[in-house]
Structures are given as structure tokens and as C-alpha cells.
TrEMBL record:
Boundaries of every Carbohydrate kinase PfkB domain copy: 6-280
Gene: rbsK
Subcellular location: Cytoplasm
InterPro entries to which the protein is assigned, alphabetical: PfkB_dom (IPR011611), Ribo/fructo_kinase (IPR002139), Ribokinase (IPR011877), Ribokinase-like (IPR029056)
Gene3D superfamilies (UniProt xref): 3.40.1190.20
Entry annotated with the keyword Chaperone: no
Name of the protein described by the UniProt record: Ribokinase
Activity regulation information from UniProt: Activated by a monovalent cation that binds near, but not in, the active site. The most likely occupant of the site in vivo is potassium. Ion binding induces a conformational change that may alter substrate affinity.
PANTHER family according to UniProt: RIBOKINASE (PTHR10584:SF166), SUGAR KINASE (PTHR10584)
Enzyme Commission designation: 2.7.1.15
Obligatory cofactor(s): Mg(2+)
Length: 291
């Protein structure tokens, strides 16, 4: 069993600020750090730290060797990451004193992944495996089509949200993960509620209100209360949740159990400053004491 993740790889430039800037405002930051990030890389690292075998499909520029090396250190299979003639993607992230964030993305090499590369990476994948993708790379629909034809369980974290991109892949999906804002945008774009989407399992993360799982086959919805913690940085929490969710499912957990595991990981994540480099592992979850 393995998780094949078509995902972005970024250098995260994180600026701590007293508050998130408004239009026209010049604001001095109190610190700057660089770390491994990108929704795809974050999810791959999270799933790997949750003891899953993870094959990352992506691309970096010549300047991205450090990012690939970091992912390898965290246990991710990096053999399907290409080096292309473009700059590695990066994100400019502002984080305020309440832990909220603002993110600007430069896609770079994340939009230079070839169909040949994807087909080669998935050639040995099959029904025991999961295919995961997001909206920070090109070729998501193409890759999901291959994965679906080969019998993989297809999971989609539809962020950054794009209604047309979601509509193009809905028939291929087994699992859809969204946050509350994205869910509202999807309902507006499609005219369908989460419970009526043609996807068996829909998970909507609700921040401090926890999350909701819709099993559309059974016509049931289940709410999972949030784990109370004091956040210092919410960057990467959703990605950590998704990576752990996929790892739990890959290990054969029922959806409810996998969601609970993912919530614990995300709760720890928001108490840490950073992205992929500070994603908790299973020992962190075992040692955690939540009130």
C-alpha cells in the first residue's frame, strides 16, 4: 500500500507580523524564516510521519535540491520529483500574533510537471493505493484520470479553490477534502450541497469548530468537535490534517478513526511555528496531552 501524491514543493518564506496587512499598508515584520512547504510537500511529509509509504510526484528547479533532500530526510520517496528549467515554487507567508496567516504563491516549477513523468510514476500503482492531489500543480485532472482507471482510491484537497478545476474531476473522486470557505464556494458554483455531491466521502474542516464528514452513499453526516489548543500558527494545519487522514485510511482505519487521528495531528501543528519542518510524528501524537 502506498500514497501517490501529485503535489507542490515550495520554499516557504515566513514573516511574523503584529497583524495581517491591509490594502496599501506598509508593515514591518519581526522575523523571517525559510522552510520547506507547499501544500503537496506538507501533505507528503505528514503522511510519511504518520508511517505511510509516500511517493511524491512533483518538480523543482535547479535551486530546489535542498527541498528534495529535506523531503527524503522525512521519509518521502522522492524518485518521482523532476528537476526542470524553472525556478522552484515559493510562498510568501505573513503570520500574525493570533496565528492567522496570509499567503502569496509563486508556482514556478510546480506548473512544469509533464504527463510522461506522471504516467511513469503511477505505472506500478493499483487498487491497494491512494492517489492524492491539490490545485497547486498542473496536470491534476490528467493524473486523477490515470489513477481512477488503475483502480486507486482518488482523494482531492481542492485548494487553492477553483470551481472549474473541481468540476472537471468530481466524477473521478472517492474522497474530497475542503475547508468551510471552499465548501461554500463549491456549493455556490455547483448548486449542490456537500451531502449531494457525487463523491462518497466529503470531509469539511471547520477550524475551531472541528470538522464534518459526509458519507453520501449512506446519506449520513457526522460532526467531530475540535481539540482545544491555543494556536500560534495555523499555516499547514489543514495539510497536516489531510496527510494524516490519508495515512490513516492507507493503514485500513475506518474514516471516523482516521479523522480523529488527523485532528490530533492538526491540533499539535497549530501550536508550532512553521510548515513541513515541524509537522508532528506519531510519537508526538502518543505523547500529547490535550485538555
Amino acid at each position: 500500500m502506498a500514497i501517490y501524491n501529485l503535489g507542490s514543493i515550495n520554499a516557504d518564506l515566513v514573516y511574523r507580523v503584529p497583524h495581517l496587512p491591509t490594502a496599501g499598508e506598509t508593515l514591518a515584520s519581526t522575523s523571517l524564516s525559510r522552510g520547506l512547504g507547499g501544500k503537496g510537500a506538507n501533505m507528503s511529509v505528514a503522511a510519511s510521519r504518520a508511517a505511510a509509504r509516500v511517493v511524491h510526484i512533483g518538480a523543482v528547479g535547479e535551486d530546489g535540491a535542498w527541498a528534495v533532500g529535506r523531503m527524503l530526510e522525512y521519509g518521502v520517496d522522492t524518485r518521482s520529483i523532476a528537476v526542470v528549467d524553472q525556478q522552484t515554487g515559493h510562498a510568501i507567508i505573513a503570520v500574525d500574533d493570533a496565528g492567522e496567516n496570509l499567503i502569496l504563491l509563486f508556482p514556478g516549477a510546480n506548473h512544469a510537471i509533464s504527463e510522461t513523468q506522471i504516467a511513469q510514476a503511477l505505472k506500478d500503482a493499483g487498487p491497494d493505493d491512494i492517489f492524492l492531489f491539490q490545485n497547486e500543480t498542473n496536470a491534476g485532472a490528467y493524473a486523477a484520470g490515470i489513477a481512477s482507471r488503475q483502480g486507486l482510491r482518488v482523494a482531492y484537497a481542492a485548494a487553492p479553490f477553483d470551481a472549474a478545476a473541481v468540476a472537471a474531476v468530481l466524477p473521478l473522486l472517492d474522497i474530497l477534502v475542503l475547508n468551510a470557505v471552499e465548501a461554500a464556494q463549491l456549493e455556490e458554483a455547483t448548486g449542490q450541497t456537500m451531502a449531494n455531491l457525487p463523491v462518497r466521502d466529503v470531509v469539511v474542516t471547520l477550524g475551531a469548530d472541528g470538522c464534518r464528514w459526509y458519507n453520501t452513499d449512506a446519506g449520513e453526516a457526522q460532526h467531530f468537535p475540535a481539540i482545544p489548543v491555543t494556536p500560534v500558527d495555523t499555516t499547514g494545519a489543514g495539510d497536516t490534517f489531510t496527510g494524516y487522514l490519508m495515512a490513516g485510511l492507507d493503514r485500513g482505519m475506518p474514516m471516523a478513526q482516521a479523522i480523529t487521528l488527523a485532528q490530533r495531528a492538526a491540533a499539535i501543528m497549530v501550536t508550532r511555528i512553521g510548515t513541513a519542518d515541524v509537522i508532528p510524528d506519531l510519537k508526538d501524537l502518543e505523547d500529547a496531552r490535550f485538555s
